[in-house]
Amino acid sequence: MRGAVLYGPRDVRFEEVAAPAIIKPTDAIIRMSATCVCGSDLWPYRGANPVNQPTPMGHEYCGIVEEVGRAVTSVKPGHFVIGSFFASDNTCPNCLAGYHSSCQHRELVGGAQAPLLRVPLADGTLVATPVVPSDDLLPSLLTLSDVMGTGWFAAEAANVQPGKTVAVVGDGAVGLLAVLSAKQMGAGRIIAMSRHESRQKLALEFGATEIVTERGDEGVARIKELTKDIGADSVLECVGTQESMMQAILSTRPGGSVAYVGAPHGVELKGEELFYTHVRLHGGPAPVRRFLPNLVELVLKGKINPGKVFDLTLPLDNVSEAYRAMDERRAIKSLLHP
Amino acid sequence: MRGAVLYGPRDVRFEEVAAPAIIKPTDAIIRMSATCVCGSDLWPYRGANPVNQPTPMGHEYCGIVEEVGRAVTSVKPGHFVIGSFFASDNTCPNCLAGYHSSCQHRELVGGAQAPLLRVPLADGTLVATPVVPSDDLLPSLLTLSDVMGTGWFAAEAANVQPGKTVAVVGDGAVGLLAVLSAKQMGAGRIIAMSRHESRQKLALEFGATEIVTERGDEGVARIKELTKDIGADSVLECVGTQESMMQAILSTRPGGSVAYVGAPHGVELKGEELFYTHVRLHGGPAPVRRFLPNLVELVLKGKINPGKVFDLTLPLDNVSEAYRAMDERRAIKSLLHP
């Protein structure tokens, strides 16, 4: 089969790779219904993370179970399933506490930008839908594998409460879905920080009540202005840079909450500065598996339509253009059909 | 009058200072019943914070109201009162949210190691007891001005829950009172990290169920060992160094909470490292004022006896020995009688 392989900065190739096989009895093989490019794929694509060897890409997936190992009992060939980018056993103390992405047996899923994918710990990782969904639901269901669950975690980790004021730093797919999540949780005001028209539009559609285009210190000043000099109750940091992190922290009221869900790159927090902000800080790789059953239901019932973040759809063999369009910010997120 | 003035590292003098006077109509003057030396006073005493000019010392206080400004309505001369080291109006949005130490009009109280003290924003800051308490209650009531409230905030900010596992990093007065607070909140296991016999003893008396003497990475390993490799649910960081902060963070389970209440000195948190720990982080200067009414009641009813942290009592004019004994760790905390 052919899949996407990253060789170095801006060098992603669609080439022959080995088809995955069951390695452990707890594995499953999925035939991809749809896959996509993640904002986090852009870190190595842009050279911000080193690429030490040709690396099969992709960690967002949904599809039909093709084959299962002999120990797998909860999913069967023919089931439509979605899973997180971290495989997890769903039974260890960390999973039971809701932190599946810190599962004691977690494994990163990789190589999803291909027609077939091996998913470890299939019983713990995969959630099957009651029936095979229609094609129009695929984009929304696919987002549950990562970006939607990550946006949801941001809102939850930042303790979004009904009627309260939320600010979202970052207008990528995760930031936009953090807006949608805050809306679902009943936030009163949702301030989206974005300077791109198409993203502002989608933020408003997802429930943002205000748009702030300023960044950094000016962005902080604007949030303070909008909140009577107090700061937002919850700020959702969906980027991962030093600037976005400090913008989030300094935009938050004392006792308020900052969630950070974008893998930090070069972020350093000074203890003294953090101390006097009085903020609550929580984040990390989203425990997407925790939210999957609920989010699948919301999608199947038509209550949320997170698939709108896909503004570019391409055949999988054009994966290099999918990366380029996101890198150049021509696309919010690229969906790929195998 | 004479009061304690810090001139430089290990040079604290008891010397003639100007008696305080009402400056603003919201001020009160307190005649000190008891005062003390704080662990945080040791930072400048040891030269870790610069001393740019002779500085009147002390910020923990309780005593009898001597005089009030014309705008003060809630306390009167003759009342016995306690207040926090941060004066606060108790009416601004940050106070109403419980973050009095981020009050929009906050002022640091200073010069409490003296017979008389000016307290700004008296109505918001001071809490009066129903009657003037007997002398035996003075040590415990005095701790409510800072260390007891700070220990309580640590336990609250780390989300201590009934039956859960708590670890406390730091065996100073705040750490010991964090143990007491966790006990009051119903913690199931309380692991005190201490290598000093007298402090271990007090920790056990306050409710610690286990003592861990290891520090740093070894301390982390020991906590993991005691918690089936998961980490504690709540870790209370009561020191403020890089080592103690990382010890606290790495001892916490994914999804668990770290509170940090010791003013950080040279602490830098790497975003990447923090991200993958999945901990919740909250802290800052304790909003002691929020807890005062409840804590005063607990002391007056004899339910808590935080005054036990004072293992040295001296006349105020021997304040230099009070500092020395704490600096050399001969005393946990020194109480001073004016």
Descriptive notes:
The structure is a homodimer of 338-residue chains. In chain A, the strands form 4 sheets. In chain A, strands 3, 5, 6, 9, 10, 18 and 19 form a 7-stranded mixed sheet that branches. In chain A, strands 13-12-11-14-15-17 form a 6-stranded parallel sheet, sandwiched between helices. A 3-stranded antiparallel sheet of chain A has the order 2-1-4, with helices on one face. The termini of chain A are close together. By secondary structure, chain A is of the alpha/beta class. In chain A, helix 8 packs parallel to helix 9 (242-250). In chain A, helix 6 links the parallel strand 11 (165-169) and strand 12. The first copy, chain A, has helices at 42-45, 93-96, 122-125, 138-143, 147-157, 173-184, 197-206, 216-226, 242-250, 271-277, 288-300, 319-327; strands at residues 2-8, 11-16, 28-36, 55-56, 61-68, 80-82, 86-87, 107-108, 116-119, 127-128, 165-169, 189-193, 210-212, 232-237, 252-260, 268-270, 280-283, 312-315, 334-337. The longest helix of chain A has 13 residues, at 288-300. In chain A, 57% of the residues are buried. Chain A has 2 domains: 2-146 and 287-337, Medium-chain alcohol dehydrogenases, catalytic domain (Quinone Oxidoreductase, Chain A, domain 1, Alpha-Beta Complex); 150-283, Rossmann fold (3-Layer(aba) Sandwich). Chain A is built from 12 helices and 19 strands. The radius of gyration of chain A is 19 Å and the shape is globular. The A-B interface holds A 93-94, 97-99, 101-102, 104, 228-230, 240, 242, 245, 253-255, 260, 263-272, 274-285 and B 93-94, 97-99, 101-102, 104, 228-230, 240, 242, 245, 253-255, 260, 263-272, 274-285.
